[in-house]
Amino acid sequence: MTNLERDKYANIIQQELEKLNVEFTRYRTRWDNLQKDIEKVSKDVKEINTTSNKISKRFTEISNAKFEEKTVNNNVENLKILEMEE
In terms of residue numbers, what domain contains 13? Predict the structure, then answer.
């Protein structure tokens, strides 16, 4: 192989490496963005789970509460919470 041929192939390889670098840079940027999106979704899921647990706990507390009714003329006029679990 002559020096001229070697230089030609070296130049072609260099051009292909530059193209590959552009693609890899694009890939890396997209990967980083995807990773951030996944982390955000994970954080959102944890927050929604916390809220769900609080709502569920509150429903349980309310359903276990004991009430005292005041009835006037067969109408419930006032409900007073006597005891509620916490």
Answer: 3-83
